[in-house]
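Hi, here's the filled form for the chain we discussed.

Project: internal
Contact: R.S.
Residues: 90
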Amino acid sequence: MNYKIFNKQVFEQAQVRSVSDVLLTEEELENGMKLAVSKSDPNLTLYLVDIDGQKKFDVRWDDSSEIFTGWYSAWDNFSWCLDIVDKQND
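And the returned structure, exactly as it came back:
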């Protein structure tokens, strides 16, 4: 596994059902809840964020950020970025 899970409960929930019921702290409302990070590049992260009262996923890498409504789209993008990071480190 080339990534580290930060919030296993929410990470697993996102894979099987909605995360709309996940409560975020004040800090997480501002910055997002970190779900996973690349082991090779700590700048590549997957967050759960709240945008206008809706939970979405945010893939952040260096200075870029891409928002996804669904888990599978976000995970595909995060995995794609992980592959690039791993190839850069080979």
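Let me know if anything looks off before we file it.
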